[in-house]
From TrEMBL:
<keyword id="KW-0472">Membrane</keyword>
<protein>
    <submittedName>
        <fullName>Raffinose/stachyose/melibiose transport system permease protein</fullName>
    </submittedName>
</protein>
<feature type="domain" description="ABC transmembrane type-1">
    <location>
        <begin position="92"/>
        <end position="305"/>
    </location>
</feature>
<comment type="similarity">
    <text>Belongs to the binding-protein-dependent transport system permease family.</text>
</comment>
<feature type="region of interest" description="Disordered">
    <location>
        <begin position="1"/>
        <end position="23"/>
    </location>
</feature>
<dbReference type="InterPro" id="IPR051393">
    <property type="entry name" value="ABC_transporter_permease"/>
</dbReference>
<feature type="transmembrane region" description="Helical">
    <location>
        <begin position="179"/>
        <end position="201"/>
    </location>
</feature>
<feature type="transmembrane region" description="Helical">
    <location>
        <begin position="35"/>
        <end position="61"/>
    </location>
</feature>
<keyword id="KW-0812">Transmembrane</keyword>
<keyword id="KW-1133">Transmembrane helix</keyword>
<feature type="transmembrane region" description="Helical">
    <location>
        <begin position="91"/>
        <end position="113"/>
    </location>
</feature>
<dbReference type="Pfam" id="PF00528">
    <property type="entry name" value="BPD_transp_1"/>
</dbReference>
<feature type="transmembrane region" description="Helical">
    <location>
        <begin position="284"/>
        <end position="304"/>
    </location>
</feature>
<feature type="transmembrane region" description="Helical">
    <location>
        <begin position="125"/>
        <end position="146"/>
    </location>
</feature>
<dbReference type="InterPro" id="IPR035906">
    <property type="entry name" value="MetI-like_sf"/>
</dbReference>
<dbReference type="InterPro" id="IPR000515">
    <property type="entry name" value="MetI-like"/>
</dbReference>
<keyword id="KW-1003">Cell membrane</keyword>
Length: 314
């Protein structure tokens, strides 16, 4: 009878360790173990964000006034009041306009700044710090500073008068036609540096060989940017557009600091309308319903923007 085939270990080589049931269980446990580390963070998030959000969504269908323990369901009555309220509709239009304008201008400004400081110039590191510095300011403080700069006797109008351009002096925050765009200008000034950093990271990740090859093929500066740089920045564009869009849709600090939602309802956003309805007028069911509407608008627009940019990338 032939002897069974035996595997031999070459001299000097270590024999493979035997796979025991305990080892297999340990490897399977090692695969599952990292998930346990996120449990505390998820529990805190659920307790602080998810539970209050769900409770708020439930109370939007009630007549709870925020104080008394008793309440009753009113169905979609609060949402019907939101749709019928002209101030709420104006706030929604202003919010969409502010978010769209700030998203476009801030991304263009951030990309231009990133292209500028990405060049090999001696002062590029100083310029990066200077352009990013406004980001670290508290939005409320920056809003108050800009409200003084744009007041009728503020620094901007005084500079125009000193330059002989007094005819251009204007009550920027008191005119319904310019107030919203003045708020947009402050937002872009403060957060363009943030977009610059994200675009700068994307630019520095582009291999130099790709740009050199495009140059050898005869591509000019605009062709290299349009056909090489911009497609490779798609990831940075997606991140920046989504952050700007969400930030614009939930804008509150700068509006309250600069205009308080005025003049009239010219700069009223959904966030400021929620604040006034809840804490100034005491209409908690209406404010909660308006908050749910704002959440739905943000979720839908963010999902649409993400799908569009992903389709463009593919």
């Amino acid at each position: 009878m032939a002897a069974p085939h035996a595997t031999t270990t070459p001299p000097g080589a270590r024999a493979p360790a035997a796979r025991t049931p305990a080892t297999a269980r340990g490897q399977r446990a090692g695969v599952r173990a990292p998930w346990w580390f996120v449990v505390p963070a998820v529990a805190v998030y659920v307790f602080i964000v998810v539970v209050p959000s769900v409770n708020g969504a439930v109370f939007s269908f009630t007549d709870w006034n925020g104080l008394r323990p008793g309440w009753s369901f009113v169905g979609l009555g609060n949402y019907a009041d939101v749709l019928a309220d002209r101030a709420a509709r104006d706030a929604l239009v202003n919010t969409l306009l502010l978010a769209a304008t700030a998203t476009v201008v801030q991304n263009v400004a951030g990309l231009l700044l990133a292209l500028g400081v990405n060049r090999v110039v001696r002062s590029r590191y100083v310029l990066r710090v200077v352009f990013f510095a406004p980001v670290v300011l508290t939005p409320l403080v920056a809003g108050y500073v800009w409200s003084f700069l744009l007041s009728p006797d503020g620094a901007l109008n005084e500079a125009l008068r000193a330059a002989g351009l007094g005819a251009l002096a204007h009550d920027w925050l008191g005119d319904p036609g310019t107030a919203l765009y003045a708020v947009v200008a402050e937002i872009v000034w403060q957060f363009a540096g943030y977009s610059m950093v994200i675009y700068l990271a994307g630019l520095q990740a582009i291999p130099a060989e790709v740009l050199e090859a495009a140059t050898i093929d005869g591509a000019g500066a605009w062709s290299r940017f349009r056909h090489v740089v911009l497609p490779l920045l798609n990831g940075a564009v997606v991140i920046n557009v989504m952050l700007c869009l969400i930030g614009g849709l939930k804008q509150f600090d700068q509006v309250m600091a600069m205009t308080g939602g005025g003049p009239g309802t010219a700069t009223e956003t959904i966030s400021t309308a929620i604040y006034k309805s809840a804490f100034s007028l005491g209409d908690y069911p209406f404010s909660i319903a308006l908050a749910v509407v704002m959440t739905a608008v943000i979720a839908v627009l963010a999902a649409v923007q993400f799908r569009l940019t992903q389709r463009r990338s593919s």
